[in-house]
Amino acid sequence: MHLVEAYSAATRLRIAPMEIETHSFPLPFRGKYVLIITSTGAPAKNYKHWKAVSDWVKPVLNSAGYALVQAGGGKDEKIGADHDVCGKTSTLQFFDLIKNASLVLCGDTSAVHVAGHFDVPLVALYSISPPSVSRAYFGNPYLQKYLCPEGYTPSYNPNETPAAINNIKVEKIAQEVCGLLKLQAPKFKTLHAGAGYPIHSLEVVPNVILRPEFVPNNVLGIRFDVGGSEKAVYDQLSVRKCWVRTRTPLNIQFLKQLRQNIEYIAYEIDENHSPAFPTAMMREQIPFRLYSKLPDEKLNPIKLDYIDIGIIEKIEVPQGFPELAGKKFRTNRRIFSGGKIFLSHAHAKSDKSIDNFAQNEDTVLDTPEFWEDKELFYIYE
Known about the structure:
There is one protein chain. The chain has an 8-stranded mixed β-sheet with strand order 13-12-11-10-9-8-15-16. Strands 3-2-1-4-5-6 form a 6-stranded parallel β-sheet, sandwiched between helices. The longest helix has 14 residues, at 50-63. The protein has a domain at 3-187: Rossmann fold. 25% of the residues lie in helices and 20% in strands. The chain is built from 12 helices and 18 strands. By secondary structure, the chain is α/β, with parallel strands linked by helices.
């Protein structure tokens, strides 16, 4: 039974459409658009692969004359839509955007019901409760597509872990959107969608210096753990905000002088570790993190040396995935080293650079360096 029917039976109130007031919102263009809302009221209903959906669907929409507009809360994750109005609309303006959209794409949230009320084509993602319970009650059901994880039994748990909704395939969403708009859907198959793929990040091996005016307001990652010089670490920290990843203890006096530009220092605990380094950072109130790739039999005895310093995050060294070698991957991270740009540290090690900063796609390399950052990649064929 739908929740509306259950409420009607309990209250004996008649089911009928209600009036929904809207206020016009001035979009910076004229024409057709698809509205995407990426957040819901529950963590388990928030799909984490919206960026991948946008990457595949937006070119098809744009070529057919549609813009992709993202609406929702001001803190919603950005997915690369043509226009982002998150946090800029009132509730009634939000309703107006739904009313005038060519299609609404969202999770199990209020937008579903507003789209149904205005009879707007709809693609909605469901997981913890079935669409039969909380789908749009009004509107043409032939214009409404509800996607659920295959073979999944709803848990009704808003904090479900892991969130089953993330098992809905990106390509299935693209197919349904294009189907309702009568467009040719892109042909691809998702092989892996990393949780960190939507995150835009910038890293540098300390053999070059990136000035603060390059991608401003972006906290730069200094990867001293993979190469470069210690002097370049300090030179880079002197010009912009950074986090640093290192296996080697750094000069605490220099770090103290540069503290205002240190987001944090990530110190790798290996067989040549030095508890004195994080102890000094703790004393000087320099933010730091501890991590290790050592196997448990080597790491467990070391933990006693750090019991009063901090928790050591265990990084599992991933196994190879030879079946994915040579497949395509995309990422929103860029790595600068030796005057070139790379999409992974495995590519940097093999000197396989990209041509320009805008390029986000390359070929999978089946190496430990590549798989260590697997969650930053979207892999497909």
